[in-house]
């Protein structure tokens, strides 16, 4: 791994909707096709406690999620106060985090560690924008997901968008060590490397 090529590791997960819709192969295929290297792979039925440890607990992250929900509601003229009893982004963020944990523990998921140049950024790009309506064609979310944040917020559930992908080196490091023992990560050389 040379610093010149910026080789790094990231973590992604095929969420319950990706698994139950039969998209495991399609999603994995896109990662391999890009030339990124899968170095750990397993299906698991997560517990809520495992999901709670997976997602950040800091106030900044929770407030960011709540803020996104507030702006979605504003855009679609949803009365946040009537629906959630608060307009505080931190309180709303905690609520959305809870929806997310329930969703992620609702069916098996596939957890994956990927290695390659700029792996974090590349997997985020392959995944596409968080919100299906904003995800470009050619991305996993843009090609296969159709859920609406407005509907999800109204129904009190997480947006179904097929994949999770680490956003920062800190998230990646935390998630890889949370989901995989070091001996279950298998570095190797891809042909042509
Ligand atoms: P990401 O998955 O693209 O990294 P984040 O903002 O980190 O997006 O949000 C984590 C997950 O929380 C999203 O993938 C989505 O499933 C869910 N989510 C985010 N914002 C909302 C919302 O406003 N309502 C419902 N679910 C949301
Ligand atoms: Mg995220």
Question: What do you see in this structure?
Answer:
It is a single chain. This protein has 193 residues and is α+β, with helices and mostly antiparallel strands. The protein has one domain (3-181): Nucleoside diphosphate kinase-like domain (Alpha-Beta Plaits, 2-Layer Sandwich), CATH 3.30.70. The chain has ten helices and four strands; from the N terminus they run βααβααααβαααβα. It has helices at 16-20, 24-34, 48-54, 59-75, 80-84, 89-104, 119-127, 140-144, 149-155, 169-179; strands at residues 7-14, 37-44, 109-117, 163-165. A four-stranded antiparallel sheet has the order 2-3-1-4, with helices on both faces. The longest helix is centred in the middle third of the chain and has 17 residues, at 59-75. The N and C termini lie close together (11 Å). Inosine-5'-diphosphate binds at residues 65, 68-69, 72, 96, 99-100, 130, 149, 152-153, 158-159, 161, 164, 167. Inosine-5'-diphosphate (IDP) binds next to helix 4, helix 6 and helix 9. GO terms for molecular function: nucleoside diphosphate kinase activity. Its cofactor is Mg(2+). Pfam families: NDK. This is nucleoside-diphosphate kinase. Belongs to the NDK family.
